[in-house]
Amino acid sequence: MVLLTGANGKKRRTYPDDEKFTIYGAILARTDPPVLHHGVIKEVATMFGMPTRTIQKIWQKGQHGGFDELKDKRKKNSGCKKIEISLEAIKNVDLKDRTTLKDLAEKLGVKKSTLYNRFKEGCFHRHTNDIKFTLTSDNMKARVQYCLSMLHETNDGGRTFDPMYNTVYIDEKWFYRTRRNQKYYLANDEQRPRRSVKSKNFIEKVMFLAVITRSRYNNDGHCIFDRKIGIFPFTIVEPAKRKSRNRPRGENFSLKD
């Protein structure tokens, strides 16, 4: 059984063909067509848990055209027609107007919900585009030469890539001293912390030097070295050992490592 909403907003029940065939057969087994015996409609309605009016309609249609008349005629031509979207129309829209479904739907002249339904059906797909480096011919050659330098000959005359166990990767990492928005969990009687900077757009940052290399595994496949050598600050804060005209003794100051 399926519920359909009509133009007046009321829900109408629709029954599958096999169920209507079963109901019509139950009526025929209890009567002598074309005469309908008294009480058969009510008996069949109680048996299938349907309104008597529905059973009467099934009987009338069956008498008019048999089982063929009971078949649903709306299967091939019912419901809202599917709005197709041309792929060429999407291609003709400028890329800057295809960043959101709302912008694309406006350019195509369709509803956003319609466009979203076609997207879920796989008519088109979403692509996240990363900006690439502009490489010159010399840059490309240098990259190829670097890859070739990683090839080494083996004892049997073959070639293999350098395992790079003796290579160390060094990179600087920037960290903000604090976040612009930070969430805390406080007790009901606890005072809210106050954080302040001169400008929210220029929060102070600190730099660290990170050093890693390739991980090491033993013969059993267990990691014996997790590739992390360490992360080291460029500056350290320590108390002054002697007083000067810039600071008294014991006051903390930044010192380059």
Automatic annotation (TrEMBL):
One example GO MF annotation: nucleic acid binding
Stated name of the protein: DUF7769 domain-containing protein
Gene3D superfamilies named among the record's database cross-references: Ribonuclease H-like superfamily/Ribonuclease H
Database matches in InterPro entries: DUF7769, RNaseH_sf
Domain of life: Eukaryota
Pfam families on file: DUF7769
Species assigned in the record: Eleusine coracana subsp. coracana
DUF7769 domain boundaries: 16-63
